[in-house]
Structures are given as structure tokens and as C-alpha cells.
Fold:
Amino acid sequence: DWGNLTGWNDRLFLYGQIGYSRRITMQYRRPFLFKRRQIDGVLTFFYVNNKEIGYRTEEGVLQLARLQEGRIRKNYSGSVGFVKRFSPREQLQWGFGYTHFKVDDTVLQANPLYMTDGATVEQYPFLRVAYVRDERDIRSFPLNGYKIGAGFQMNGLPAFGTSRFAKMSAGFSHHISLSERWNFAYGTQNFLLAGRKVPFYDKYFVGLGTSFLRGYERYVIDGSFINATKMEWKFGIFPRKMRHWGWIPLKRFQDFPFGLYISAYTDLGYVRDWTFNNQDNYLKNRLLTGYGMGLNVITIYDFMLRFEYSFNHFGQGGFYISTLVSIR
Structure:
């Protein structure tokens, strides 16, 4: 991670990983590429080569395929983007790129509808635009403020690419400090696919990535439309602030931020799927409800850890640990 690479306050980030999953990530960001307009430039490249992938779901459980010899997936994507900064908390992003995705034919034997045309390769250009305004106090564990955002991405163009579909998203969250110890938050995330011929790996998912419903951590749900609406009460046993702990033997580590909160929450979700490869309706077309209580720990470098016990509409309960912000 190299800051101020050329003296223009630009940043180069490189990440490499070998072993069972091979991965390369590169991002170069140049602030004030167009100085008068306050527009930054971003160049991104991503490559992954796996021995194991999920190829479909059965009753909400992700089915995995792996190869003992060789690699089952090869995926790379590159993009050029621009960021217009209206203020430190408000920005507009747009850009274009290209995606190439290749799988071993054993994946198509397990799920013939994994790709859109029965071939082992999907490739298409994409165009995207996104807007975000983030007025939250601290992003890693917000207690006050709001965030709104929306995005649109067109994958494939006429006569270019093996697939053509659009992805849209919109979200809102609001965090309200009721007192020094009490906080209430609510928010909603919505995702929409326009198009039926969508490869399985590029659909929207609940349970993979940052989209999740508490109480359904053991499940993965793929769909064309996803709504996730959440509400949460938090009580600060130790409200977040700088604390001095003299019993720590190293003096330089005796002062650091710390907070401990109890939470009670309810998550509601709904998933529909009109793609050609809709094969599992176990958790679709019905109201999904999750609820529970948790303990949230916030400490140095804005690190947050959630310990939660959640239930779903089946009555199934489970203990889960996460570092993701519950309401974004």
C-alpha cells in the first residue's frame, strides 16, 4: 500500500494471494485528476483463480464444486472510474470496464444453467454510475446520522458480450442518538436485476458478501429482486469514548477507544427471482423474519465485532460472530 506514489497524493494498492484460492487485486487512485472539477481517477484490476465455487443452492444451502487437480474458476475484471466529490461526504461515481469469467466444464455438468448459453466462458463490458451521501458519524459503528445511496450498472452492450442485463440498487439508513446510552437505527436495502439471462454468479444474493439477514446466516438466497429492511435498538454499557486502562503494562497501549453495546433487532426480507436459472424457491416469494439480541464491541482502529444470537421464521436459532455493520 503505497501512499503519495508520484507526489500527487495518489495511492497504489496491491494485494496478492497464493494457495487454495489465488487472488490479485490492484487499485490506483489519483486525486484531482481534473482539478477544476474536483474529479478523481480510479484504475482497478481484479483476478481470482479458485479450486472451489458455489454452483447453485438447494433449499437455501449453497452447493460447492471443487477440483482436486487444476482450477475450477478463472475470473478477471478491469475498470476505469471517476469520482466527482461534491463534499467530503457526498460523491458521484461512474466508470466502465470489462469482465471475463471462465469455469471448468464440470460446473456445467453439475448445473447446466450456471452460464447463460451453455458455454464455459462469459464475458461482457459494463458501464456503471453510483451516488452516495454519507452523513453518519463513524462508518464502522454509526450512532448518529444518515446515509443514502443508489447505483446502476449495465452489463453487456448490443453486439458486445455473451450476456446483457442491468443491475440496480438503492438504500437508506438512519441512526438516531436518543441519549448518551440509547440509540435507534433503521434502514433498507433494495436490489433489482433487469433481464432474465443472467449468469448464476452475477445474480444478487442474500448470505454472500455484504447483503445479509440476521437469523438466516446459514442460508444463501439468489434472486432478481431483494429487499432487506432492518431495525435495531442499542444500549451502551460502556458508551464509545477514549478510555485509560492503567493495568496494561505497556504505557503506549493504556489509552484507546472502547465501547460495549447491547442490541436487540428485527430484520425483514423478501426475495423474488424471474431469471431463467431460478432453481430453488425454498426461501423466495415469502416474508423472511429474523430477530435476536447481541453484544457489540468497538475498539482501536474502529474495529467492531458483533456477537449475536438470532432466530428465523422457522424457529431456528444460532450464535453468530460478524465484523460487518448491521445497518449500513
